[in-house]
Amino acid sequence: xxxxxxxxxxxxxxxxxxxxxxxxxxxxxxxxxxxxxxxxxxxxxxxxxxxxxxxxxxxxxxxxxxxxxxxxxxxxxxxxxxxxxxxxxxxxxxxxxxxxxx
Length: 102
Description:
This protein starts with a strand and ends with a helix. It has one helix spanning 94-99, and strands at residues 2-4, 9-13, 20-25, 34-37, 43-46, 50-54, 60-64, 69-73, 78-82, 86-89. Helix content is 6%, strand content 45%. It is mainly β.
């Protein structure tokens, strides 16, 4: 379960609400427009000018965008739809990461 607080903190809890899995400070005083799970272990937050993908252990990546967009959650990814494009974003699986590691 993922929750975004008024203080700009993303908190991820176990489904039983007994264990806090992650606290991530977004350093934003403005809440995201949308927040969805992207696969089973990363969260995608949508602000007007950027997307923030937060994965396990608090690893994150920021994607800047100029155009408004809408997020559509999929089973193992998230679709990003704008006026001109439709993109699919998903976390690289650990097995693929291991294969392509240098």
